[in-house]
Amino acid sequence: MLKLLSFVFLFISSLPTFSSEVEMNGANTAWILTSTALVLLMTLPGLALFYGGLVQRKNILSILMQCFAIAGVSSILWLLLGYSLAFGEGNAFIGDFSKVLMVGIGKDTLSGDIPESLFMLFQMTFAIITPALIIGGFAERMKFSSVILFSGLWLLCVYSPITHWVWGGGWLGQMGLLDYAGGTVVHITAGVAALVAAVVLGPRRGFPKTPMLPHNMTMTVTGAGLLWVGWFGFNGGSALAANGDAAMAMLVTHISASTGALTWAAIEWKKFGKASVLGAVTGMVAGLGTITPASGFVGPGGALIIGLLAGTICFYSTVFIKQKLKIDDSLDVFPVHGIGGILGTLMAGVFSSTSLGAFSGFGFADGILTMSQQIFVQLSGIGATIIYTAIVSFLLFKVVAIMTSGLRVSEEEEVTGLDINEHDESGYNL
């Protein structure tokens, strides 16, 4: 009998144990490490080169410096307060201070099945590129001190709260808003803030009569290529796992970018007789920005339609903003990112419909809302993001103007260029 009991004990002790605790997933961690590097690549050097080539040569260093400085300022503020405001428990509108300076978060602390330090770093790269996108709205005319002060305040007062609304357990997330990788959080906020900036600062000297052509298209195309590659981490990494969701998000991202580029170029070819390189890369960025909120909810067929809509609607929005409204959104941030974010967020509600999902390739989300219900939620999110961003951004510009004795450089400094006047350096010494 004793031998039988001993055998039973040994058999039971040899069985595998199952813990209810979540363990770190090595594959997922490796993918998000890679995605984090890809998203940072989008700002440095991707966006810096893309924007840098689009401005006049006398302002190239100012654009590069703004991107690098914003990356540093955003990183520090995200560590100090931004991450906690965005992802702390808090309430429906803002996070609390429980994660300030990563208090209580060690190397083994998990967020899901990846280290929370990695999740925080991945989200930090989003917090870097979003205010960096805004500089395209006031390029070539804003003081460096004003740029840095505005960007820091905007990160804390606009980006962090809206991130909490959507991804941090806030009211829009609770409503069921579909924003996979940043249609509202990144693109609408940046686009609206850039439009407000263009209106508050006024146009560049000579706009719209004096042509202000890109000074280095090779640089712009190089930056555009880095953005395209980096966007795989932006959207694919938002799955927070190395799985089919990430793979599908990457596929639809590529399809939309390709379609957006070709659509924009085709429209130019028909209207002007030639397809420009600038049009192709701008259409590509429009396709990328528009697919972003929908990338986790659509299939390749949906991505084709979204890319087609992005290339068409964003093209005509650019014409309307600059030629009809005479607003000098210098590098077309609102018509490309703002309109793209609005369109993509709305399309996420359309293509996530289970009825459309029955048609292979268009949608695959297993939604619980009807299409009309989901579109209402999407429109609510779009409207709230636009209104809040516009009001707070406008107030921040007014506050910064007081603190820096005016947002804009003098007319003489604008003529000379920001490189010399703001940084005492020149981008080219040939």
Secondary-structure blueprint:
Blueprint: H1 2-14, H2 26-54, H3 60-87, E1 110-111, E2 114-115, H4 116-134, H5 144-167, H6 171-175, H7 183-201, H8 217-236, H9 244-272, H10 277-291, H11 300-324, H12 333-351, H13 354-357, H14 371-403, H15 411-416, H16 418-423
Antiparallel strand pairs: 1-2
Class in CATH? Answer: Mainly Alpha
- Give the spatial strand order of the biggest sheet: 1-2
Q: CATH homologous superfamily name? A: Ammonium transporter AmtB like domains
Low-pLDDT sequence parts: 7-20
Number-wise, the strands total 2
What portion of residues is helical? 55-70%
The biggest sheet amounts to: 2 strands, antiparallel
Shape: globular
CATH 2nd-level architecture:
Orthogonal Bundle
Structural class: mainly alpha
> What name does CATH use for the topology?
Ammonium transporter fold
- Compute the number of structural domains: 1
